[in-house]
Amino acid sequence: MRYLTAGESHGKQLTTIIEGLPAQLPISADELNDSLIRRQGGYGRGRRMKIEKDLVSIMSGVRHGYTLGSPVTLALTNDDFKNWQDIMGEEPVDPEKHIRRQVTKPRPGHADLNGGMKYNHDDLRNVLERSSARETAARVAAGSMAKKLLSELGITVAGYVRQIYDVQAADLELTIDEKIERARQSEVNTIDPNQEESMKHVIDQAKQDGDSIGGVVEVTVDGLPPGLGSYVQYDRKLDGKIAAAVMSINAFKGVEFGIGFSAASTRGSETHDEIAYDEHKGYYRKTNRLGGFEGGMTTGMPIVVKGVMKPIPTLYKPLESIDIHSKEPFKASIERSDSCAVPAASVVMEHVVAWEVAAAIVDQFPSDYMEQLKAALTDYRERVRTFG
C-alpha cells in the first residue's frame, strides 16, 4: 500500500490518493470523519480550528460502501479558501500586488528559510503553505482507512497523551479498549484523569505567557501476530518504518519503543522479555519492555511506541528572525495560534502508525480482497501458534 497527499494549508483542498487497499473493505465517510474530527479537537488549539471543518469526500475507489481495489481518492475541502482566493489562487497576479503580500520573515523552527533556499522562493508563503501541519489531516484520512482495515482483522490501535510539558500521566495498567475510551473522554486525550486538570493548567499558562509547549504521545497496537516485518534487510524492519513515519510528523523530534532510551541505564536482565508458551495462545512474552519488537519484527505482544513533540515554534511573543530581502532583523511573523497541539498530535501519530502496520500486513499476505487476506492471516496465526 502507498499514498500521496497534495494541497496547501490555505488552498482549495487537501487530497489523498491511496493505492493498494484490498477490495471489499467496508468503509463510509462517517468512519473517516470521526478520525478527522478528533484531530481537530484537543485543549489548546487555536481559533483556526473553528474555521476549518475537515470532513472528507470519497471521490473514487469506493462503491456502495466497499472498496473496489482501485485507487481511493479522499478530498478535504477548505471552506475558508474564499477568503484566500487572492493570495492562494492559481491565476497570475499583478507583480506589485504580489510583492506587497510576500512573506519574507522566516519563522525559527519552521521550514520557511530552509525551504526557501532549497526551492529558490522569494516568497516564503510558497514554503509554509505546504510545510504546515495541516497536511497531517490528509495523512489522518489515509490512516483512518488503514485503521478500518486493521479492525476488520481484529487489530486495534489507540493513541493518547503521556505527557504535556512537565506533567506526566501515570503508567496505568489498562486494556486497549479502556485506553481508547479514557482518551476520548479527555479534553487533552490522556488516559490518566488525575492529571488532566494539571495538563490543562500548563497549557493555559503557556498561552497566557504568549508561549507554547510540547509533550509525549504514545500509540499502542494490539492483536498483532508475531513476525510482521523482516530482519533480512534494514528497510524491511517494521519498527524502522514506524520510527520513520513518526519522525515525519510535523514537530516530532524523537521516538522510542517500549522502555526506549531508559534501556541505556538498565541491565540485560531488566531489558529483555522472557519467552513462554501456552497451548491456546502459543508463544508469548512475560513482559513487553521492548515494545512488541525483536529484530525488526513483531513479537505478538502489543506495539508500544512513543513520540516526542516539540513546542509549536510560532509564538505570540515571536522570536527574532532576518528579513530575506533586506537582511534586517525582525520579529518573526505569526501564522497560527495554538499554544499546544499535543492532544491533536496523538491522533496524527495513531494514524501514521496504523498505516505502517496495515501496509506491512498487506505486503506480507495475499490481499487482493478482504476475505483472501482474512483467510491468509488466520492460517498464519495458526501456524505460528503451533510452531516447532
TrEMBL record:
FMN binds at residues 130-132, 250-251, 295, 310-314, 336. Its cofactor is FMNH2. InterPro entries: Chorismate_synth, Chorismate_synth_AroC_sf, Chorismate_synthase_CS. It is an enzyme of class 4 (lyase). It catalyses: 5-O-(1-carboxyvinyl)-3-phosphoshikimate = chorismate + phosphate. NADP(+) binds at residues 39, 45. Reduced FMN (FMNH(2)). Its EC number is 4.2.3.5. The keyword Lyase applies. The keyword ATP-binding does not apply. Pfam families: Chorismate_synt (PF01264). Pathway: Metabolic intermediate biosynthesis; chorismate biosynthesis; chorismate from D-erythrose 4-phosphate and phosphoenolpyruvate: step 7/7. Keywords: Amino-acid biosynthesis, Aromatic amino acid biosynthesis, FAD, Flavoprotein, FMN, Lyase, NADP. One of its GO terms (molecular function) is chorismate synthase activity. PROSITE patterns: CHORISMATE_SYNTHASE_1, CHORISMATE_SYNTHASE_2, CHORISMATE_SYNTHASE_3. Homotetramer. This reaction introduces a second double bond into the aromatic ring system. NCBIfam families: aroC, PRK05382.1. Belongs to the chorismate synthase family. This is Chorismate synthase. It comes from Alkalibacillus salilacus.
